[in-house]
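Module 6 notes. Inverse folding takes a fixed backbone as the condition and produces residue identities as the prediction. Think of it as a translation problem where the source language is geometry and the target language is the twenty amino acids. Below is one complete input and output pair. Work through it position by position during the lab.
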């Protein structure tokens, strides 16, 4: 460029230049060299891209107000045959190779970033890509720099898929809408299949999509599920996920409960009745039977709980019997006993009848 010619004339014909010219020229050259250093292109030397996926080949520089970008050219060298893939100039962006149309682009609104973005990589996209940028200086001189990146497109086998549940998790109510998502890594396209059952057992194919949808869950949907992923990599290996348990609960039916040992003991205690036989007076042959037949519910009849609803406080008050009393007896004042049973008990009635048949009324001789 002009810098080389100026330096050559300065060395060969120093008399042609005045001191002021020499100083001014040195300042201009220094400023030029500093600006040129700022415009250094940065990127990567080599990179790998996954077949059918996207890739970005970085090519970035620090913008300078002393230089205006003129052209950006991306070329590809494959099998010793160079070809221009992309060109940007004052007339706009141009994709030069038809097989890249609709798949490559360069950012427009990020100053200093002229990276090449390639979508839906093909195996034939492997090669040496060169980023070439030309700037125009304030003195109309041109500065060109370039950088090469080696790209290798590979096929990656699919990985073991994982299953993600919807927002409701793996335990969901009947009638709800939910989904199970199967995801795996690898070269696209990846195909998915869903099975109900467990790997290696009896299974039923339920879907050919990555997402297994349930619009209205039924209890019959309860069971184990797993998914299978496969792509077109060279290995052609199908990967299976672990099975997950999906549980559908019918909230309209109360859950069955198993009585605890404590509840069983309380139930038995409530059915116990006591018959106390006492003599009402000395020397009498005929015993006076006092029937103490009671249950837990009897005490509740005697004292009922009444809640006022204020501050959640409750009080107790004497209640009246609500059932017919078949065994009410007069208080035995001599022995200061009072009847406590006010509720009919079938078992108690049978036993009393049986005991009465074993005693006969008579006087002591």
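Target side of the pair, the amino acids:
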């Amino acid at each position: 460029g002009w810098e080389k010619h100026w330096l050559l004339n300065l060395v060969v014909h120093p008399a042609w230049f005045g001191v002021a010219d020499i100083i001014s020229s040195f300042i201009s050259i220094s400023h030029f060299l500093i600006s040129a250093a700022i415009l250094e292109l940065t990127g990567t030397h080599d990179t790998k891209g996954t077949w059918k996926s996207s890739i970005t080949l970085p090519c970035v520089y620090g913008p300078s107000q002393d230089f205006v970008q003129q052209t950006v050219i991306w070329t590809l060298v494959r099998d010793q045959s160079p070809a221009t893939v992309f060109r940007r100039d004052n007339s706009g962006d141009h994709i030069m190779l038809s097989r890249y149309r609709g798949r490559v682009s360069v950012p427009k609104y990020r100053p200093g970033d002229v990276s090449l973005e390639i979508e839906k990589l093909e195996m034939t996209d492997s090669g040496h890509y060169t980023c070439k940028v030309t700037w125009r200086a304030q003195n109309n001189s041109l500065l060109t720099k370039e950088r090469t990146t080696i790209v290798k497109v590979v096929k990656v086998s699919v990985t073991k898929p994982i299953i993600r549940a919807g927002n409701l998790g793996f335990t969901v109510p009947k009638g709800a809408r939910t989904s199970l998502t199967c995801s795996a890594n690898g070269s696209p396209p990846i195909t998915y299949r869903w099975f109900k059952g467990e790997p290696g057992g009896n299974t039923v194919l339920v879907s050919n999509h990555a997402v297994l949808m349930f619009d209205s869950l039924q209890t019959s949907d309860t069971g184990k599920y797993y998914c299978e992923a496969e792509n077109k990599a060279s290995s052609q290996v199908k990967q299976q996920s672990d099975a997950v348990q999906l549980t559908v609960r019918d909230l309209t039916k109360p859950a069955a409960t198993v009585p605890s040992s404590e509840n069983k003991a309380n139930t038995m205690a409530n059915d116990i009745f006591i018959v106390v036989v006492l003599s009402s007076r000395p020397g009498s042959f005929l015993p006076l039977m006092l029937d103490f037949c009671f249950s837990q519910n009897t005490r509740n009849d005697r004292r009922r709980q009444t809640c006022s609803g204020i501050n959640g406080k409750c009080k107790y008050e004497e209640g009246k019997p609500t059932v017919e009393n078949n065994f009410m007896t007069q208080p035995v004042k001599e022995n200061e006993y009072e009847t406590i049973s006010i509720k009919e008990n079938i078992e108690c009635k049978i036993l009393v009848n049986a005991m009465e048949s074993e005693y006969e009324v008579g006087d002591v001789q």
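Reference fact for the lab report: The radius of gyration is 48 Å.
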